[in-house]
Structures are given as structure tokens and as C-alpha cells.
From TrEMBL:
PANTHER family: LYR MOTIF-CONTAINING PROTEIN 4 (PTHR13166:SF7), PROTEIN C6ORF149 (PTHR13166). Belongs to the complex I LYR family. The gene is LYRM4. Residues 7-64 form the Complex 1 LYR protein domain. This is LYR motif-containing protein 4 isoform X2. Pfam families: Complex1_LYR. GO terms for biological process: iron-sulfur cluster assembly. One of its GO terms (cellular component) is mitochondrion. Coiled coil: none annotated.
Length: 75
């Protein structure tokens, strides 16, 4: 994985964890954090650039969903 691609993946990972920590319900928060960590660990050895890009696109969509959940949950 190229250095810039690695940095992008790490930035996305951190952003997803940061946003997930804002869930007010403990069960949702811990589930989201566990799923994010598991998914990134499961795919850490992927070398194919096309597959890496597809996984990053999915993670970006998931980050958008998390952010929408947070904006709807706040009064």
C-alpha cells in the first residue's frame, strides 16, 4: 500500500472511531467501535489497489451514515 493510501486509510479509521464515540447509548457506541476495529483488522492485509479503493469507498459511506445518525440524534 502506498504511503498516501495508508495515510488516507488511517485518517478514515480515526474519523470513524471519533464519530462513533459520540453515540449516547453505550451499546450502540461499543458495537460501532468494535465493528470498525474488526473490519479494519480483517482487511489490513489487502494489497489489491482496486479492492482497497472499494473498501475505502464503503468506509466513507459508513462514515456518512454515522455522521447522519449523530446529526439526527442531537436536539
Amino acid at each position: 500500500m502506498a504511503a498516501s493510501s495508508r495515510a488516507q486509510v488511517l485518517d478514515l479509521y480515526r474519523a470513524m472511531l471519533r464519530e462513533s464515540k459520540h453515540f449516547s447509548a453505550y451499546n450502540y457506541r461499543t458495537y460501532a467501535i468494535r465493528r470498525i476495529r474488526d473490519a479494519f483488522r480483517e482487511n489490513k492485509n489487502v494489497k489489491d489497489p482496486v479492492q482497497i479503493q472499494a473498501l475505502m469507498n464503503k468506509a466513507k459511506r459508513d462514515l456518512g451514515i454515522i455522521r447522519r445518525q449523530m446529526s439526527c440524534a442531537q436536539p
